[in-house]
Amino acid sequence: MLTQAKHGDTVTAGLITARTGPPAEPCFFTEAERACAAALLNQLTGQCGEPLEVPLAEMVDARLAAGETDGWHYADMPEDGQAWRDTLGYLDKDAHARCGTVFADASREDQAAIIQAVQDGREWHGLSAARVWSLWTRYACTAMYSHPHACLSYRRVRGDCTGLRGVSWPAEAGNFSCWVETSPGRSDSRAGAMARTSPVTCARDGYTVVALHGELDVYTAADSVRTLTAHAAAGARIVVNLAELTFIDCGSLRAVVSVRAQARQAGGDLALADPQAIVLRLLLFTGVISRCPVFASVHDAVKGGPAALLSP
Question: Is the pTM of this model over 0.70?
Fold first, then answer.
């Protein structure tokens, strides 16, 4: 992507170059707030313990400084800029209570425990915990997936990718249950998947397993959606095997998940299985993981093994 930027139009090339250049100095957050935001965002996106390629805190800072919000906010929440300031302050307050330091200086384990309490709770410092979680993940997702390095990471072998926390398959209670780690020796590159996008279907123990491959976007998703829709209309119990799927855009993900309603109306159902870490992140950020069962493996989905990582 970076080497080909010069061949694109000047606007796109300029945007890519700007996003990969040195991050701007913070102009919205104070230094203490920036440090807290960086620690939070790195926890949310799994950048802890690895070279930081996406300057998330700086990107969120620039967005808030420019007033580039989502154009709305919940009625029971402050506007986004103030909400960020307030919640970062509450993270520092919780860190002081837990370990006697600010959030940015707390250990990764303490940071994770503090964030977990927000994710698991109903109310947090007088705010809806779900609203706070939505605020953080919306901005984290937008920053992460608008950066060229994040796009490149889809194609990188990352056997040590941990998502939000170092949780092993299947997810363990109390460790950010929405996030899982690839098991030892498992490569996210899935050699050979990139060249193949047509779905592969097989029958297994009364289930129809549809394996998706490569990258699905507005140009490549049609065959997969047609295949899933046909099985849904027949009332099949569908397991969508994501093991070889290296990328899916939001529109394609929405189309795949919408098939579940069709399947259930016809007496069947649909579940997702074995997502790579980068795809699992998108499932959480978009809320899909709370509306459609996601299993650690196809075996678990068809054999009634460990429960879904999160089941609606």
Answer: no
